[in-house]
Protein backbone atom coordinates (compact mmCIF):
# COMPACT_ATOMS: atom_id res chain seq x y z
CA UNK A 1 0.00 0.00 0.00
CA UNK A 2 2.89 2.33 0.84
CA UNK A 3 4.34 1.97 -2.66
CA UNK A 4 0.87 2.26 -4.19
CA UNK A 5 0.18 5.64 -2.56
CA UNK A 6 3.31 7.37 -3.82
CA UNK A 7 3.23 5.64 -7.20
CA UNK A 8 -0.15 7.29 -7.83
CA UNK A 9 1.09 10.79 -6.97
CA UNK A 10 2.20 11.76 -10.52
CA UNK A 11 -1.19 10.62 -11.86
CA UNK A 12 -3.04 12.50 -9.12
CA UNK A 13 -1.07 15.65 -9.88
CA UNK A 14 -2.23 15.54 -13.50
CA UNK A 15 -5.91 15.44 -12.60
CA UNK A 16 -7.83 18.53 -13.58
CA UNK A 17 -8.88 17.72 -17.10
CA UNK A 18 -12.15 19.50 -16.51
CA UNK A 19 -12.01 23.31 -16.63
CA UNK A 20 -14.88 25.57 -15.66
CA UNK A 21 -13.31 28.70 -17.18
CA UNK A 22 -15.20 30.22 -20.17
CA UNK A 23 -13.58 29.77 -23.57
CA UNK A 24 -11.49 32.88 -24.15
CA UNK A 25 -12.05 34.96 -27.26
CA UNK A 26 -10.35 38.24 -27.97
CA UNK A 27 -12.95 41.06 -28.08
CA UNK A 28 -13.75 42.49 -31.50
CA UNK A 29 -11.71 45.56 -32.35
CA UNK A 30 -13.58 48.73 -31.33
CA UNK A 31 -11.75 50.88 -33.90
CA UNK A 32 -11.75 51.19 -37.73
CA UNK A 33 -9.59 48.83 -39.77
CA UNK A 34 -7.24 51.56 -41.02
CA UNK A 35 -5.44 54.52 -39.47
CA UNK A 36 -4.32 57.51 -41.53
CA UNK A 37 -5.20 58.59 -45.03
CA UNK A 38 -2.47 56.86 -47.02
CA UNK A 39 -2.31 53.34 -48.37
CA UNK A 40 -2.63 50.93 -45.45
CA UNK A 41 0.54 49.12 -44.43
CA UNK A 42 1.15 46.38 -41.88
CA UNK A 43 4.85 47.26 -41.57
CA UNK A 44 5.14 49.37 -38.44
CA UNK A 45 8.14 47.74 -36.78
CA UNK A 46 10.66 50.26 -35.46
CA UNK A 47 14.39 49.76 -34.87
CA UNK A 48 15.93 49.82 -31.41
CA UNK A 49 16.12 53.23 -29.78
CA UNK A 50 19.89 53.34 -30.34
CA UNK A 51 19.25 53.38 -34.10
CA UNK A 52 15.95 55.28 -34.03
CA UNK A 53 17.44 58.37 -32.37
CA UNK A 54 20.55 59.82 -33.96
CA UNK A 55 21.62 62.53 -31.47
CA UNK A 56 24.61 61.19 -29.42
CA UNK A 57 23.75 63.38 -26.42
CA UNK A 58 20.17 62.12 -26.43
CA UNK A 59 21.34 58.51 -26.67
CA UNK A 60 23.50 59.01 -23.59
CA UNK A 61 20.59 60.50 -21.64
CA UNK A 62 18.26 57.64 -22.59
CA UNK A 63 20.86 55.09 -21.49
CA UNK A 64 21.19 56.88 -18.15
CA UNK A 65 17.43 57.01 -17.70
CA UNK A 66 17.06 53.28 -18.35
CA UNK A 67 19.60 52.68 -15.57
CA UNK A 68 18.40 55.23 -13.02
CA UNK A 69 14.73 56.06 -13.50
CA UNK A 70 12.71 55.17 -10.40
CA UNK A 71 9.45 54.45 -12.24
CA UNK A 72 11.26 51.86 -14.33
CA UNK A 73 12.81 50.32 -11.22
CA UNK A 74 9.35 50.00 -9.67
CA UNK A 75 8.03 48.35 -12.85
CA UNK A 76 10.89 45.82 -12.80
CA UNK A 77 10.18 45.06 -9.13
CA UNK A 78 6.51 44.54 -9.99
CA UNK A 79 7.58 41.81 -12.42
CA UNK A 80 9.56 40.06 -9.69
CA UNK A 81 6.58 40.34 -7.36
CA UNK A 82 4.13 38.89 -9.91
CA UNK A 83 6.56 36.10 -10.84
CA UNK A 84 6.82 35.09 -7.19
CA UNK A 85 3.03 35.15 -6.75
CA UNK A 86 2.64 32.97 -9.83
CA UNK A 87 5.18 30.52 -8.41
CA UNK A 88 3.25 30.35 -5.12
CA UNK A 89 -0.08 29.74 -6.85
CA UNK A 90 1.29 27.24 -9.35
CA UNK A 91 2.88 25.21 -6.55
CA UNK A 92 -0.62 24.24 -5.35
CA UNK A 93 -1.04 22.08 -8.46
CA UNK A 94 1.46 19.52 -7.08
CA UNK A 95 1.61 17.83 -3.68
CA UNK A 96 4.00 19.28 -1.14
CA UNK A 97 6.11 16.37 0.13
CA UNK A 98 7.70 16.58 3.56
CA UNK A 99 10.18 14.30 5.29
CA UNK A 100 9.55 14.04 8.99
CA UNK A 101 10.71 12.21 12.07
CA UNK A 102 9.71 12.28 15.70
CA UNK A 103 9.39 10.62 19.03
CA UNK A 104 6.31 10.21 21.24
CA UNK A 105 6.76 9.31 24.91
CA UNK A 106 4.01 8.80 27.49
CA UNK A 107 4.05 7.57 31.13
CA UNK A 108 1.07 5.66 32.47
CA UNK A 109 0.86 5.69 36.30
CA UNK A 110 0.30 2.52 38.34
CA UNK A 111 -3.12 3.78 39.39
CA UNK A 112 -4.13 3.14 35.82
CA UNK A 113 -2.08 0.04 35.02
CA UNK A 114 -2.90 -1.64 38.36
CA UNK A 115 0.76 -2.57 38.65
CA UNK A 116 3.96 -0.78 37.93
CA UNK A 117 3.98 2.54 36.09
CA UNK A 118 4.97 2.16 32.44
CA UNK A 119 6.65 4.44 29.92
CA UNK A 120 5.74 3.96 26.28
CA UNK A 121 7.77 5.32 23.41
CA UNK A 122 7.19 5.52 19.67
CA UNK A 123 9.66 6.60 17.00
CA UNK A 124 8.52 7.60 13.52
CA UNK A 125 10.19 8.51 10.23
CA UNK A 126 7.94 9.16 7.23
CA UNK A 127 7.35 10.91 3.96
CA UNK A 128 4.01 12.74 3.82
CA UNK A 129 1.77 15.20 2.07
CA UNK A 130 -1.14 17.05 3.66
CA UNK A 131 -4.48 18.26 2.27
CA UNK A 132 -3.52 18.01 -1.39
CA UNK A 133 -6.53 19.02 -3.51
CA UNK A 134 -7.48 16.84 -6.46
CA UNK A 135 -8.23 19.44 -9.11
CA UNK A 136 -11.15 17.64 -10.77
CA UNK A 137 -12.93 20.91 -11.67
CA UNK A 138 -9.86 22.93 -12.62
CA UNK A 139 -10.09 25.40 -9.70
CA UNK A 140 -6.39 25.32 -8.89
CA UNK A 141 -5.44 25.40 -12.57
CA UNK A 142 -7.67 28.41 -13.15
CA UNK A 143 -6.05 30.25 -10.24
CA UNK A 144 -2.63 29.34 -11.65
CA UNK A 145 -3.61 30.56 -15.12
CA UNK A 146 -4.85 33.84 -13.66
CA UNK A 147 -1.60 34.34 -11.74
CA UNK A 148 0.44 33.57 -14.85
CA UNK A 149 -1.48 36.09 -16.95
CA UNK A 150 -1.09 38.74 -14.26
CA UNK A 151 2.63 38.04 -14.26
CA UNK A 152 2.78 38.42 -18.05
CA UNK A 153 0.74 41.62 -17.74
CA UNK A 154 3.32 43.12 -15.37
CA UNK A 155 6.05 42.27 -17.89
CA UNK A 156 4.13 44.18 -20.54
CA UNK A 157 3.56 47.04 -18.10
CA UNK A 158 7.32 47.28 -17.60
CA UNK A 159 7.86 47.35 -21.36
CA UNK A 160 5.24 50.08 -21.71
CA UNK A 161 6.95 52.13 -18.99
CA UNK A 162 10.28 51.66 -20.75
CA UNK A 163 8.96 52.81 -24.14
CA UNK A 164 7.16 55.75 -22.54
CA UNK A 165 10.31 56.71 -20.62
CA UNK A 166 12.42 56.74 -23.79
CA UNK A 167 9.88 58.99 -25.54
CA UNK A 168 9.60 61.29 -22.51
CA UNK A 169 13.37 61.67 -22.24
CA UNK A 170 13.56 62.55 -25.93
CA UNK A 171 10.77 65.12 -25.55
CA UNK A 172 12.34 66.61 -22.42
CA UNK A 173 15.72 66.84 -24.15
CA UNK A 174 14.29 68.63 -27.18
CA UNK A 175 12.27 70.86 -24.88
CA UNK A 176 15.47 71.90 -23.09
CA UNK A 177 17.30 72.41 -26.38
CA UNK A 178 14.47 74.59 -27.74
CA UNK A 179 14.31 76.83 -24.66
CA UNK A 180 18.08 77.22 -24.63
CA UNK A 181 18.10 78.08 -28.33
CA UNK A 182 15.23 80.53 -27.90
CA UNK A 183 16.96 82.12 -24.88
CA UNK A 184 20.13 82.50 -26.94
CA UNK A 185 18.13 84.13 -29.73
CA UNK A 186 16.64 86.51 -27.17
CA UNK A 187 20.12 87.32 -25.85
CA UNK A 188 21.38 88.15 -29.33
CA UNK A 189 18.26 90.23 -29.94
CA UNK A 190 18.94 92.19 -26.72
CA UNK A 191 22.48 92.87 -27.92
CA UNK A 192 21.26 94.01 -31.32
CA UNK A 193 18.54 96.22 -29.90
CA UNK A 194 20.90 97.66 -27.29
CA UNK A 195 23.28 98.70 -30.03
CA UNK A 196 20.39 100.30 -31.92
CA UNK A 197 19.35 102.06 -28.71
CA UNK A 198 22.83 103.55 -28.34
CA UNK A 199 22.81 104.67 -31.95
CA UNK A 200 19.38 106.30 -31.51
CA UNK A 201 20.67 107.99 -28.33
CA UNK A 202 23.60 109.52 -30.19
CA UNK A 203 21.32 110.61 -33.03
CA UNK A 204 19.01 112.20 -30.47
CA UNK A 205 21.90 114.19 -29.04
CA UNK A 206 22.78 115.53 -32.51
CA UNK A 207 19.15 116.24 -33.39
CA UNK A 208 18.89 113.54 -36.05
CA UNK A 209 16.32 111.54 -34.04
CA UNK A 210 13.37 112.50 -31.91
CA UNK A 211 12.42 111.60 -28.36
CA UNK A 212 9.76 109.15 -29.53
CA UNK A 213 12.33 107.10 -31.47
CA UNK A 214 14.56 106.96 -28.38
CA UNK A 215 11.72 105.81 -26.13
CA UNK A 216 10.64 103.17 -28.63
CA UNK A 217 14.21 101.83 -28.90
CA UNK A 218 14.65 101.64 -25.11
CA UNK A 219 11.27 99.92 -24.65
CA UNK A 220 12.18 97.37 -27.31
CA UNK A 221 15.38 96.50 -25.41
CA UNK A 222 13.49 95.98 -22.15
CA UNK A 223 10.88 93.81 -23.88
CA UNK A 224 13.63 91.64 -25.31
CA UNK A 225 15.29 91.38 -21.88
CA UNK A 226 12.01 90.29 -20.32
CA UNK A 227 11.62 87.65 -23.01
CA UNK A 228 15.20 86.47 -22.40
CA UNK A 229 14.63 86.18 -18.64
CA UNK A 230 11.42 84.23 -19.13
CA UNK A 231 12.99 81.82 -21.62
CA UNK A 232 16.01 81.25 -19.37
CA UNK A 233 13.64 80.43 -16.51
CA UNK A 234 11.79 77.94 -18.71
CA UNK A 235 15.11 76.41 -19.77
CA UNK A 236 16.05 75.84 -16.13
CA UNK A 237 12.70 74.22 -15.46
CA UNK A 238 13.10 72.05 -18.56
CA UNK A 239 16.50 70.90 -17.28
CA UNK A 240 14.91 70.00 -13.93
CA UNK A 241 12.24 67.95 -15.72
CA UNK A 242 14.90 66.14 -17.74
CA UNK A 243 16.92 65.37 -14.62
CA UNK A 244 13.85 63.86 -12.95
CA UNK A 245 13.36 61.49 -15.87
CA UNK A 246 17.04 60.58 -16.15
CA UNK A 247 17.31 60.08 -12.39
CA UNK A 248 20.57 61.96 -12.00
CA UNK A 249 22.23 65.28 -12.78
CA UNK A 250 22.39 65.71 -16.54
CA UNK A 251 25.15 67.25 -18.56
CA UNK A 252 23.87 68.38 -21.93
CA UNK A 253 26.78 69.51 -24.08
CA UNK A 254 26.49 72.86 -25.80
CA UNK A 255 25.92 72.72 -29.53
CA UNK A 256 25.66 75.28 -32.30
CA UNK A 257 23.37 73.02 -34.32
CA UNK A 258 19.89 74.49 -34.67
CA UNK A 259 16.93 72.24 -33.91
CA UNK A 260 15.52 72.82 -37.37
CA UNK A 261 18.72 71.34 -38.79
CA UNK A 262 18.23 68.09 -36.84
CA UNK A 263 14.77 67.19 -38.11
CA UNK A 264 14.52 63.49 -39.02
CA UNK A 265 14.24 62.24 -42.57
CA UNK A 266 12.53 58.95 -41.64
CA UNK A 267 8.76 58.80 -41.27
CA UNK A 268 6.25 56.10 -40.48
CA UNK A 269 3.88 55.09 -43.29
CA UNK A 270 1.00 57.51 -43.83
CA UNK A 271 -1.52 54.67 -43.52
CA UNK A 272 -1.51 51.66 -41.17
CA UNK A 273 -3.84 48.78 -40.45
CA UNK A 274 -5.17 48.92 -36.91
CA UNK A 275 -3.97 45.34 -36.30
CA UNK A 276 -0.51 46.79 -35.62
CA UNK A 277 -1.91 48.17 -32.36
CA UNK A 278 -2.09 44.65 -30.93
CA UNK A 279 1.72 44.61 -30.78
CA UNK A 280 1.86 47.57 -28.38
CA UNK A 281 2.92 46.55 -24.85
CA UNK A 282 0.04 48.40 -23.17
CA UNK A 283 -2.50 46.62 -25.39
CA UNK A 284 -0.85 43.29 -24.63
CA UNK A 285 -0.95 44.15 -20.93
CA UNK A 286 -4.68 44.85 -21.11
CA UNK A 287 -5.31 41.54 -22.88
CA UNK A 288 -3.34 39.55 -20.31
CA UNK A 289 -5.39 41.24 -17.59
CA UNK A 290 -8.52 40.20 -19.46
CA UNK A 291 -7.26 36.61 -19.70
CA UNK A 292 -6.62 36.61 -15.95
CA UNK A 293 -10.16 37.83 -15.27
CA UNK A 294 -11.50 35.08 -17.53
CA UNK A 295 -9.53 32.41 -15.64
CA UNK A 296 -10.81 33.68 -12.29
CA UNK A 297 -14.37 32.91 -13.44
CA UNK A 298 -13.32 29.26 -13.80
CA UNK A 299 -12.06 29.18 -10.23
CA UNK A 300 -15.26 30.79 -8.95
CA UNK A 301 -17.44 28.28 -10.82
CA UNK A 302 -15.41 25.34 -9.49
CA UNK A 303 -16.12 26.45 -5.92
CA UNK A 304 -19.72 25.15 -6.33
CA UNK A 305 -18.48 21.57 -6.74
CA UNK A 306 -17.09 19.09 -4.19
CA UNK A 307 -13.52 19.52 -2.99
CA UNK A 308 -11.51 16.32 -2.61
CA UNK A 309 -8.29 16.44 -0.59
CA UNK A 310 -5.77 13.75 0.23
CA UNK A 311 -3.54 13.41 3.26
CA UNK A 312 -1.11 10.50 3.44
CA UNK A 313 2.18 9.42 4.93
CA UNK A 314 4.37 6.37 4.66
CA UNK A 315 7.48 5.39 6.54
CA UNK A 316 8.65 3.42 9.56
CA UNK A 317 7.57 3.26 13.21
CA UNK A 318 9.07 1.44 16.17
CA UNK A 319 9.04 1.40 19.94
CA UNK A 320 12.84 1.33 19.93
CA UNK A 321 14.97 3.81 18.05
CA UNK A 322 17.37 1.07 17.07
CA UNK A 323 14.56 -0.86 15.36
CA UNK A 324 13.12 2.15 13.46
CA UNK A 325 14.25 0.91 10.08
CA UNK A 326 14.22 -2.79 10.93
CA UNK A 327 12.18 -5.51 9.32
CA UNK A 328 8.44 -5.16 9.85
CA UNK A 329 8.59 -1.51 10.90
CA UNK A 330 6.69 -0.15 7.87
CA UNK A 331 3.76 2.13 8.64
CA UNK A 332 1.37 4.24 6.58
CA UNK A 333 -1.80 6.24 6.79
CA UNK A 334 -4.17 7.47 4.10
CA UNK A 335 -6.99 9.97 4.75
CA UNK A 336 -9.03 11.17 1.74
CA UNK A 337 -11.70 13.78 2.41
CA UNK A 338 -14.55 15.20 0.34
CA UNK A 339 -16.33 18.49 1.12
CA UNK A 340 -19.49 19.62 -0.64
CA UNK A 341 -20.75 23.16 -0.05
CA UNK A 342 -24.42 23.10 1.00
CA UNK A 343 -25.13 26.45 2.63
CA UNK A 344 -22.71 29.38 2.51
CA UNK A 345 -25.10 32.36 2.70
CA UNK A 346 -24.57 33.08 -0.99
CA UNK A 347 -20.77 33.45 -0.70
CA UNK A 348 -19.92 31.38 -3.78
CA UNK A 349 -22.63 33.03 -5.87
CA UNK A 350 -21.43 36.49 -4.86
CA UNK A 351 -17.85 35.51 -5.66
CA UNK A 352 -18.91 34.32 -9.11
CA UNK A 353 -20.80 37.56 -9.71
CA UNK A 354 -17.69 39.46 -8.65
CA UNK A 355 -15.42 37.65 -11.11
CA UNK A 356 -17.89 38.12 -13.95
CA UNK A 357 -18.20 41.83 -13.20
CA UNK A 358 -14.42 42.14 -13.17
CA UNK A 359 -14.27 40.50 -16.58
CA UNK A 360 -16.74 43.06 -17.93
CA UNK A 361 -14.47 45.78 -16.52
CA UNK A 362 -11.41 44.10 -18.07
CA UNK A 363 -13.12 43.96 -21.48
CA UNK A 364 -13.98 47.66 -21.29
CA UNK A 365 -10.42 48.53 -20.20
CA UNK A 366 -9.00 46.48 -23.08
CA UNK A 367 -11.26 48.24 -25.59
CA UNK A 368 -10.41 51.64 -24.11
CA UNK A 369 -6.69 50.84 -24.38
CA UNK A 370 -7.11 49.91 -28.05
CA UNK A 371 -9.10 53.09 -28.71
CA UNK A 372 -6.44 55.21 -26.99
CA UNK A 373 -3.73 53.51 -29.03
CA UNK A 374 -5.71 54.16 -32.23
CA UNK A 375 -6.04 57.87 -31.41
CA UNK A 376 -2.34 58.22 -30.54
CA UNK A 377 -1.18 56.57 -33.77
CA UNK A 378 -3.70 58.52 -35.83
CA UNK A 379 -2.47 61.77 -34.26
CA UNK A 380 1.11 60.86 -35.12
CA UNK A 381 0.21 60.13 -38.75
CA UNK A 382 -1.57 63.48 -38.96
CA UNK A 383 1.05 65.49 -37.08
CA UNK A 384 4.08 64.27 -38.97
CA UNK A 385 2.66 65.76 -42.18
CA UNK A 386 1.12 68.87 -40.66
CA UNK A 387 4.12 69.75 -38.48
CA UNK A 388 6.53 69.34 -41.40
CA UNK A 389 4.47 71.71 -43.54
CA UNK A 390 4.29 74.14 -40.60
CA UNK A 391 8.09 74.16 -40.23
CA UNK A 392 8.63 74.73 -43.94
CA UNK A 393 6.14 77.61 -43.95
CA UNK A 394 7.85 79.24 -40.96
CA UNK A 395 11.25 78.92 -42.62
CA UNK A 396 9.89 80.89 -45.56
CA UNK A 397 8.31 83.41 -43.17
CA UNK A 398 11.64 83.95 -41.35
CA UNK A 399 13.38 84.56 -44.67
CA UNK A 400 10.75 87.15 -45.67
CA UNK A 401 10.81 88.88 -42.26
CA UNK A 402 14.60 89.09 -42.40
CA UNK A 403 14.36 90.65 -45.85
CA UNK A 404 11.69 93.05 -44.59
CA UNK A 405 13.92 94.13 -41.69
CA UNK A 406 16.75 94.90 -44.08
CA UNK A 407 14.46 97.05 -46.25
CA UNK A 408 13.01 98.87 -43.21
CA UNK A 409 16.49 99.60 -41.84
CA UNK A 410 17.65 100.96 -45.19
CA UNK A 411 14.58 103.18 -45.51
CA UNK A 412 15.06 104.46 -41.95
CA UNK A 413 18.73 105.24 -42.58
CA UNK A 414 17.64 107.18 -45.66
CA UNK A 415 15.12 109.12 -43.57
CA UNK A 416 12.13 107.78 -45.50
CA UNK A 417 10.34 106.10 -42.54
CA UNK A 418 10.29 106.43 -38.77
CA UNK A 419 12.04 104.08 -36.35
CA UNK A 420 8.71 102.42 -35.53
CA UNK A 421 8.80 100.66 -38.89
CA UNK A 422 12.21 99.20 -38.01
CA UNK A 423 10.98 98.06 -34.60
CA UNK A 424 7.92 96.43 -36.14
CA UNK A 425 10.12 94.55 -38.59
CA UNK A 426 12.52 93.48 -35.81
CA UNK A 427 9.65 92.30 -33.63
CA UNK A 428 8.08 90.33 -36.48
CA UNK A 429 11.40 88.70 -37.34
CA UNK A 430 12.05 87.81 -33.71
CA UNK A 431 8.61 86.27 -33.25
CA UNK A 432 8.87 84.24 -36.44
CA UNK A 433 12.32 82.96 -35.42
CA UNK A 434 10.98 81.97 -32.01
CA UNK A 435 8.03 80.23 -33.64
CA UNK A 436 10.35 78.33 -36.00
CA UNK A 437 12.41 76.97 -33.09
CA UNK A 438 9.28 75.85 -31.27
CA UNK A 439 7.87 74.30 -34.47
CA UNK A 440 11.11 72.34 -34.93
CA UNK A 441 10.75 71.08 -31.35
CA UNK A 442 7.15 70.05 -32.04
CA UNK A 443 8.22 68.20 -35.21
CA UNK A 444 10.89 66.34 -33.24
CA UNK A 445 8.30 65.57 -30.56
CA UNK A 446 6.23 63.80 -33.24
CA UNK A 447 9.21 61.50 -33.76
CA UNK A 448 9.23 60.61 -30.07
CA UNK A 449 5.45 60.20 -30.02
CA UNK A 450 5.66 57.87 -33.03
CA UNK A 451 8.17 55.71 -31.13
CA UNK A 452 5.78 55.50 -28.18
CA UNK A 453 2.53 55.18 -30.14
CA UNK A 454 3.80 52.27 -32.24
CA UNK A 455 5.22 50.43 -29.24
CA UNK A 456 8.84 51.39 -29.83
CA UNK A 457 11.24 48.46 -30.00
CA UNK A 458 8.95 46.36 -27.75
CA UNK A 459 6.55 45.22 -30.47
CA UNK A 460 5.77 41.50 -30.39
CA UNK A 461 2.76 39.18 -30.65
CA UNK A 462 0.83 38.04 -27.59
CA UNK A 463 2.11 34.88 -25.90
CA UNK A 464 -0.65 32.27 -25.57
CA UNK A 465 -0.75 28.75 -24.22
Automatic annotation (TrEMBL):
Coiled coil segments of this chain: 176-241
Membrane keyword on record: yes
InterPro entries, A to Z: MdtP/NodT-like, OMP_efflux
GO CC entries: plasma membrane
Keyword terms of this UniProt record: Coiled coil, Lipoprotein, Membrane, Palmitate, Transmembrane, Transmembrane beta strand
Places the protein is found: Cell membrane
Gene3D superfamilies documented for this protein: Outer membrane efflux proteins (OEP)
GO MF annotations in UniProt: efflux transmembrane transporter activity
Major localization listed first in the record, in broad terms: membrane
Keyword Coiled coil: yes
Topology in membrane: Lipid-anchor
Similarity remark: Belongs to the outer membrane factor (OMF) (TC 1.B.17) family.
Protein name from the UniProt record: Efflux transporter outer membrane subunit
Species the sequence originates in: Chitiniphilus eburneus
Amino acid sequence: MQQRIFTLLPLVALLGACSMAPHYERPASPVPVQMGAGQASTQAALPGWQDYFSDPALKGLIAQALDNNRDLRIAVARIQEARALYGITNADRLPTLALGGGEQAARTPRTVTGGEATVGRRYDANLSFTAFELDFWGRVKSLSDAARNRYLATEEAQRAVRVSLIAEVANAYWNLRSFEERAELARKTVQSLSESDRVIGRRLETGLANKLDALQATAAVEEARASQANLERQARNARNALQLLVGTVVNVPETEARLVATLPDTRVPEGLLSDVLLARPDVRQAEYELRAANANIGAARAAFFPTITLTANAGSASAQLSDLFGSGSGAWSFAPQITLPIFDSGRNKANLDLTEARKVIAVAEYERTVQTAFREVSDVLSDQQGQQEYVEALERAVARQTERLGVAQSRYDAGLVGYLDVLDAQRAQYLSQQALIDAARARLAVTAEAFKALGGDEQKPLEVD
